[in-house]
Write a structure and sequence with these properties.
about 600 residues; 7-stranded mixed β-sheet; 4-stranded mixed β-sheet; 25 helices
Length: about 600
């Protein structure tokens, strides 16, 4: 058995610290993460083990177990499994030698042993950080076991099981401190051990072997060279064009109207029949008429008689008890009931709201994203898209109202609802690409309500400060937020929601993207923080935007300036691998500064 191991040309050394066995029931106490992996992996062969005892401290208990095996056919794998952390206290020399000779470090703990985790975090993790200061070794943190709470919570903002077990956010925070890869292994099944833990471990094994092979090739070349040759600089290859993910801002808001989530206003006909449900924040973002209707602005603020007259003649807010009881739970009370006075307008209201929700950006672009004489570029395309959607609205209204006069009256009311105060709309057409002066629509947007208390129905508590927001926008733009506010979590019925794991500035940048669909990081470090936050809330397009910003900045930055920034590209790429930053970690040709 020893022959093949000694004959191996290359080797990988793995050091594992910590006791994970408290994460399982009593009948599985003999289970060990490392031993289970070595026994089940199809890539491992010829496994043998030996125990090192320290009678001065652990009578009959091994300080560590040493495993030797073959991996990838002819590579020697050496694993030191140290279940007792006090090896750092009793045998400092051995512990330092283990870390210094390691190619990969695994830190494992039981999610149900909070006291041991806290001791490791406070006492021993700082020692490992100091030992890793001068070397770049991949670290894997494995949270082992199923939490004993009756209903395990996977919400990143939840604090229901913080006192009884180690939460995912605490493990992620520890991984951030060490620059490690965080894994949760709910059991030692074939999936968690073979594919999840094993896949990550084998990935780092391959990286280590590639690095060692590269170093060997460099040594061979240096031995062949008899003299010092001047450096030969090759011209860098042209990098591929990087493309970001297409925006789905309009479809997100349109789906919000279809799914009827976080509804806070209901429109009724004059005979008290429900017509459609909507959201005040979206309606107020495109119309001063709705701002006036929902008391966001007063008539003195509007100073446009046509808008005031439209609000008074079309709608009436009614709070009488003649409506059916609204059963959906909301921390901000029942929705506002609005009577639509005009029967023709009420008959077409559903189509009108679908037009507003599905083309919010196009509606906004008709106002302030173009030159008054003739729009150009991407803004012109947005305006054409808005004009096309207006044509579709016209067709839908014509199908419902056969009389051309009635159709014209309804369209004029829609124009008045969407107009800018003080501007005179063209009565001929809304097809702005066919007129010299396009339709002047309302110049508001969701950006106006970002980080304000106006219509806010949720307050985030972060770093001792508060950030107001609107559930409808959050639910429409973020699936994690939608699950949190519409599921069985505490946040669904809470007005105050705590946020952990991100700074206030980063969270504000994240919310600004949800409201405006745009992102402008001020630096590479800010973009990296926003990338981590986007990965936490699973916003893939924001991740791509941050990746493209980082890549563009690095590619355009001169080498001397890059050195002066003290930015570690190796650390940056490491974080990219952990945060699923595909574009960033797959981009070659970046200058490396460590």
């Amino acid at each position: 058995m020893a022959g093949p191991l000694k004959a191996s040309l290359m080797s990988v050394h793995v050091v594992a610290f910590g006791n994970e066995r408290g994460g399982f029931s009593e009948d599985n106490q003999q289970s060990s993460l490392i031993w289970t992996y070595l026994g089940r992996s199809a890539l491992i062969s010829e496994t043998e083990s030996s125990l090192l005892l320290n009678s001065a401290n652990h009578v009959g208990n091994p300080v560590f177990t040493k495993y030797q095996a073959c991996v990838f056919g002819n590579v020697r794998l050496v694993v030191h499994d140290c279940p007792f952390w006090d090896i750092f206290d009793s045998d400092w020399y051995t512990s330092q030698n283990l870390i210094g000779g390691a190619d990969i470090i695994v830190i494992k703990y039981s999610v149900n042993d909070k006291s041991s985790f806290q001791e490791v975090k406070d006492s021993y993790v700082p020692m490992i950080k100091r030992a890793l200061n001068h070397c770049s070794i991949p670290v894997i943190i494995s949270a082992v076991g199923a939490r004993k709470s009756e209903v395990p919570c996977t919400c990143p903002l939840c604090t229901s099981d913080r006192g009884s077990c180690v939460t995912a956010s605490e493990g992620i925070q520890l991984a951030k401190e060490l620059g490690a890869t965080y894994l949760e292994l709910h059991s030692l099944s074939d999936f968690y051990i073979g594919k999840y833990f094993g896949g990550v471990l084998e990935y780092f094994m391959i990286q280590s072997l590639n690095q060692k092979s590269s170093e060997k090739m460099k040594k061979r070349k240096s031995h062949k060279c008899h003299g010092v040759k001047p450096p030969q600089l090759e011209q860098p290859e042209k990098l591929p064009i990087l493309k970001g993910e297409a925006s789905h801002y309009n479809s997100d808001l349109h789906n919000l109207l279809i799914c009827c989530q976080c509804v806070d206003v209901i429109f009724y006909s004059e005979d008290l029949k429900e017509v459609i449900e909507a959201h005040k924040i979206v309606l107020c973002s495109v119309s001063h008429v709705f701002m006036l209707l929902f008391n966001v602005k007063s008539p003195a603020d509007i100073q446009d008689s046509s808008i005031i007259r439209t609000a008074q003649t079309l709608f009436a807010v009614n709070s009488e008890a003649v409506f059916p009881v609204f059963n959906r739970g909301s921390p901000c009370g029942p929705p506002v009931r609005v009577i639509v006075k005009d029967s023709f307008f009420c008959f077409c209201l559903s189509d009108i709201l679908h037009f507003i929700y599905s083309e919010l950006q196009s509606v906004e672009s008709l106002t302030y994203h173009f030159d008054p004489e003739y729009p150009q570029g991407a803004d012109f395309l947005k305006m054409l898209e808005g004009a096309f959607q207006w044509e579709l609205l016209e067709e839908d209204i014509k199908k419902k109202l056969k009389d051309p006069g009635e159709v014209e009256l309804v369209l004029e009311k829609v124009k008045c609802i969407l107009k800018t105060p003080g501007k005179v709309n063209s009565s001929k057409t809304c097809r702005s690409h066919q007129t010299s002066r396009p339709l002047q629509l309302c110049d508001t947007s969701l950006r106006l309500f970002f980080n304000t208390n106006v219509l806010a129905d949720v307050i985030f508590q972060i770093q001792g400060d508060t950030v107001p927001a609107h559930r409808a926008v959050l639910v429409a733009r973020c699936e994690v937020m939608a699950a949190m506010f519409n599921g069985s979590y505490i946040e669904a019925n809470s007005f105050l929601v705590p946020v952990y794991g991100v700074s206030k500035d980063t969270f504000l940048s994240f919310l600004e993207y949800l409201y405006t669909d745009s992102c402008c990081p001020a630096s590479i470090l800010q973009a990296m923080s926003l990338l981590i936050c986007a990965e936490m809330y699973q916003i893939s397009r924001l991740q791509h935007i941050c990746e493209l910003y980082i890549i563009t900045q690095l590619q355009s930055m001169p080498s001397r300036e890059l050195v002066s920034t003290s930015l570690s590209i190796v650390s940056l790429l490491r974080k990219a691998k952990r945060k699923s930053a595909i574009l960033l970690r797959c981009t070659d040709g970046l200058p490396v500064c460590t």
